[in-house]
Structures are given as structure tokens and as C-alpha cells.
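Human:
Take a look at this sequence-structure pair and walk me through the C-alpha cells.
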Amino acid sequence: MLDELLPSEHATFVAACEVVELSFGERLIEPGALVEHVYFPLDSFISLIVGHEGDKWLEVAMAGREGMVGESLLLGVEEFPLCALVQGSGLALRMDAACFRRMMLRFPALQQRLQRYLYVVMVQLAQTAACTHFHQVEARLARWLLMTQDRASSSTLQLTHEFLAGMLGVRRAGVTSAALALQHRDLISYHRGNIIVLDREGLINASCGCYRADRALYDQVL
């Protein structure tokens, strides 16, 4: 995201950030809380999740090095509507909200680029809603694994069935069945919380069209 800035702007922006270590499962922002910091993942990635009836939750968007978290500030809204949960541990740039607002005024080109990213997130939210309603769990799981692999930059993903069930908003038995189906097709290998992507192209073909649509939209807009 930030690599598209002019060198002088990039240096100024990064100098105003601090590098932080994000831990798996860490909640960066709670639903309805004020945004105190914005985050730009470097090698970490963050899930945006919505809760329902206390113990149910669903991932609706994901941000890695291609994006940011805290984007409600771009609309002048201090409250964040979702939970920002660290899905992949690693480093991120963190900037406090007041400094971020000043930077947006100082660098209009950055503000425009981040607003275009916000548009991508809005479309992703709508795409995820449709995907959750219309597509089979197996195809949705394939899409989610591809999205995670893109941001993890690794073919090996440490994910339990319980965690996947929460991300996809389905029962654990549904995730187990879907994972076994993908494994029987030699697309992934799953053992004790470790998923290895064996055939990425095959996994893309097994996923719903939402994955390709997400990638195409990002390339088109950003």
C-alpha cells in the first residue's frame, strides 16, 4: 500500500509510525470502540470480523500488506464497527489516529489511494455477504485459504478446524467435511492444525468466483 508513495512522502509517513509486533489472536480494535491507532501490516495480516449473539462470529474482510486497518477514519468516523483480530502474527506499522488525520491533510495523494482501498473493502464486504449465502462451504473454504496464503506468503498455514469454523461462520463438522473433500482431491494436506496448499491452481478452480473477483477488483482500482 505505502510503496506507491513518492519516496519523500513514504519516508515522512513511515518515520511517523512505530513498528509493532502483532500476536495471533490479538484484538486490535473492538466493535464500537474509538480508533486510537491505524495499522499497516508488513508481514502480519488481520481479520475483520462481526459478532452475532455473543458467541458467533464471521470474518467479512481481511487486510495484509496490501491494506490497512482503521479505515473508518477516512470517512471522519472515529468508531470502528467491526472487531480487528490478528490472524497472522508478524510486524505492522502503527500510527496514532491524530497523526494519521494530519498525514491525510498533508498528503492528498495518499488520502486518495486509501479512499480507493476503502472502496475495495466495501465491495469485499458485499462480496463476502453474497458468498456466505449462496456458495458451498467447500468453495468458500478454498477461497479463504487462498486469501490467507496470499497474505501469509507461505503454503503452510496453521489453522484449526475450530478457528476455520469461526471465520466461515459454519459448524466445525462442515469445515471438517470441506477440508477432507479438498484433501481427497490432493489440493491440500491437513494434519493437526497444519494445512499445506499442495495445488494452488487446483484450489483456485475449486474456489468460488469470489476469489478471482476480489483480485481483479484490487488490480483495477489500486
